[in-house]
């Protein structure tokens, strides 16, 4: 199971905890899952579960992380003629 699927479950777990009013997962941990490649399903979880979707500061950091990831992948692709990214596809 990749980080993207794990990220979705972490968001769902945190949402359930929020609804019960108990200890929560730190936002930095949610951002770490996004940074490690979990951002696609984390974005889906935000919308589907309506979790962290209204918190502006969180969304700003989240989408900034996504931009950094995409920029890094684009840079790797352009600098290596695609050699470093072949393992992803």
TrEMBL record:
Annotated transmembrane regions: 61-78
Pfam families assigned to the protein according to its UniProt record, in alphabetical order: DUF1294
Keywords carried by this UniProt record: Membrane, Transmembrane, Transmembrane helix
Keyword Transmembrane: yes
GO MF annotations, alphabetized: nucleic acid binding
Protein name (record): DUF1294 domain-containing protein
Originating species: Paraglaciecola arctica BSs20135
